[in-house]
């Protein structure tokens, strides 16, 4: 098998020098929250550093720099890393974690382990001439991912320390950076805590960013927040060691206990957990999410979103029923059948009694190049013209979607006028009916989505008995090209989904540049609408 060496980028490596100015653009907070304690008698530290990612690289670099400058404080550093992961075609390449590359660059002893079972802390001799072995006396775990068991902690004189990028006890867990952004926090920070022998992130907090914390920049990404907090955490760790905060008796700077049932923070928020980000965090709900929340999820969770869509059901075969009042107009059984099939094919109310086989089977689609779109100025509204302006057209679209998802879709002119619409504004055509093709360049498309929730549907069996079944919730979504034509070149194939806004009754717009249908390559969003949209107009 090939071994692929992970090289820490030079830009990251240079920023690991931990100059105090690294975060000056964001905060002037001191790296810890209380005055330095009285000096304590300290034994030179032999550290086992457990890490994995670039966040942990900052702390290891800081400890190594202190080891070189102050060997009386840090006498040696061993590094424990987890085995590399198989990557690439055929999983023939092993990609090692960034901390291993840094440890090799710094010529530090490396221990590759994926478990502590059957393993004990290494011991080093006092010098080249031998002498009594000196064991590891402090464990530092930063973004390691493995729980350090009590057996190992008890072997180290000072136990263990951890750098956590949040204001504990808020945002305990493996993804505090992501959840700080998803929760739309205005401030966050870093904490240095002891390693608890019971569970993750429940140790004694010996240093923490002072309240209110480090301001989170507007539209901040996970990487930007990482680059802001990683050097602060590394500096805080070294400062805590210099001041002997790791030496008993420990002084807690905050209470890291969470009251049973949750409890409140000082600003009124609930304590939040920060679980690992999964694919479910990237699932967008056109029924429940606002455009702002959907764009936030895309920005924080990897840049794309996904959902399930029900493509159009094939049009029923048979003669097309003549228009009412025309020659040959009948109420024949064939006409009723076709009209009934079309009604089943395009249910415009919910809940509906259709089985999955009638609705068709959902396909997963991935929405790429996602961002929140703010209303463009009227001068580029283009063909919105007679609809009363782009703002009014968007608002009308939102009313249509809300009516279809939560009430009855307007079917008469009177109802349309009640919603502030006219016949032209609601002239949708089935995309799958060859005798009634949609316009060559539709303004908008209606899609049917499968939601991640279930509802109780009352059904009637063949014997007339009623029963209740749980069915997946189906929602309607509407996207449009209005407001995108005439903008940037990359917007020519994009669409804007009309969603709810942050304010009650206000619309929101989610721009989607490309859509990848399950099993196919990503294409400009408008190109796939003919296969996904139930109606277009």
Automatic annotation (TrEMBL):
InterPro entries: Formyl_transf_N, Formyl_transf_N_sf, Met-tRNA-FMT_N
Coiled-coil regions listed in the entry: none
Single Gene Ontology MF annotation: methionyl-tRNA formyltransferase activity
Domain Formyl transferase N-terminal: 46-241
Domain of life: Eukaryota
Biased composition (Pro residues): 311-322
Family matches, as Gene3D superfamilies: 3.40.50.12230
Start and end residues of each stretch annotated as Disordered: 311-336
A GO cellular-component term linked to this record: mitochondrion
Compositional bias ranges of the Polar residues kind: 327-336
EC number: 2.1.2.9
Pfam (any one): Formyl_trans_N
This protein's name: methionyl-tRNA formyltransferase
Source species of the chain: Pseudoneurospora amorphoporcata
